[in-house]
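Expect chain and fold; thus:
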Amino acid sequence: MGGKGKDLELAVKAIEEVVFRNQPELRGRKIDVVANRRFKHVGAGHEVDLFITVDAGTAAEERHAYECKNRNEPTEKDDVIVFRYKVDALGAKSGTMISRRFTSGAKAIAASEPRIRLVEFTQEFTTILDEVQWVAFSVQSLTAPTDITFRDAWATAMPLYPNIPAVLAGRRTTFRQVVDALADAEMATILKVQHNLPEGIHAKTTRYEEFYGPMDLLIGGCEVMRLHIALPYLIYARVAQLHAKFSVDGRGAAYWLDWTKDPFGGKSYSLEIITKPIPRSA
């Protein structure tokens, strides 16, 4: 993400790209989205924050220009006049200016030009995404105590080791791979539950039991009837760092969430989420 102004530009770009690409009437048409479009007009250089074209270079071409003003004071009429000039120079079908607020003069100028639209944005809103918790886990399947019931009692004395051959549903594998697959399935179930854990690393154990029919699972050539695992795992909980969020009236909302490196995989993550616009509180 960039600075204050750049963050709004990125949000508007992400929102508008989603909006344009999901309009039924634009399906099958070529859409190009360009940030910081520079151009020359009457020998002078100009720039708009976002430029979207539909079916560029054809008789059906449409052009749409955007200008973002992320500042505390209301956007003035002079800003709208300059933007209107850019819209004219680009031959755009529409020009949208996004700001926190607009002066009455700015609104009057826009009202006199049907192609110019003034849209307000806000960052003063709260949703469930403000409290997203990221969870990573490390499963210690190699140390997981297992209790196996074989169909033949004599097989109970068989020594078990991770790479002992196994056959699961007719497919050759190893005992360790069987346990790992069960562990992954169990952890997927656990992670669907909202934990709301305090930040940090937590040691936990889950118990999993699976029953098998005749010849469904063989370990070391012996039929398994029941497999019980006490699976120890570490779970790392961290609240997401909300880098930026914007809701643009009538268009959509954008969130950027970041996480620091997890202690298991050593990876850093970031997430961009685009939603429908958030209704303003009364």
Remarks:
- Residues 133-238 form one domain.
- The chain has a mean pLDDT of 89.
